[in-house]
Amino acid sequence: MQKKSKDPYIACKSNNMYGTGMKAPIAAFQRDVTEIEFKCSVTGRKFKCSQMPMEWYKQEKIQHYVQQGWKLKKEYVIQQPYKTPKYGADEELIEVWRLKRPYQKRGNIGAGFKTVAESVPAVAPQTFAPDNAKPITQEDLEKIDREMMSNEQDEELDDKIPF
Is residue 62 part of a domain? Predict the structure, then answer.
């Protein structure tokens, strides 16, 4: 059995943006740009909005994952705040720049699985006609039709329908 290990969480999360109480198309969450701060989950270093994502992306520890083929994604998390606010909506938004391993389709998962060809037994081709069979010609078909017509005319109906 294979041991599944979780990928490390490589991200840079912003601090909370608070709800405005408005609905779209007006901004539902806002915060002053000078107050927004991003914190790296790997190094613990903090970044301003003007430094994101390039300063964070250029770090050695982040580049290690980029060179392995990880892709940069941008995510937004809407969650209940840990401390209930006195005023405003009971939701906060967190902006996340995250590196994720690219999706790789796995072939046969696990050992012991058979391919379709191995699991379905081979069936011998069926022969529908015996070896001594001969093909039917148009004359044979006409002869059969004549015989059927003569049998139908000779046949009497046994039940009488009163009309």
Answer: yes
Structural Rg of the chain based on CA atoms: 38
Residue 36 falls inside a structural domain: yes
Cα(59)–Cα(126) distance, integer angstroms:
68
Residue 144 lies in a domain: no
Q: Tell me: the pLDDT tens digits for 104-114?
A: 776 656 566 67
Residue 96, domain extent: 10-100
- Domain tally for the chain? 1
CA distance 64 to 58: 10
In a domain, 160, yes or no: no
Is pTM beyond 0.90 here?
no
Amino acid at 89: A
What lies within 8 Å, CB to CB, of 63 at 6+ separation is 57
CA gap 13, 42 in Å, rounded: 11
Give the chain's length. 163
Torsion of CA 75, 81, 85, 87, to 10 degrees: 40
Cα dihedral 138/142/143/144 (nearest 10): 100
**Among 100, 41, 39, 43, residue whose Cα is nearest residue 72:** 100
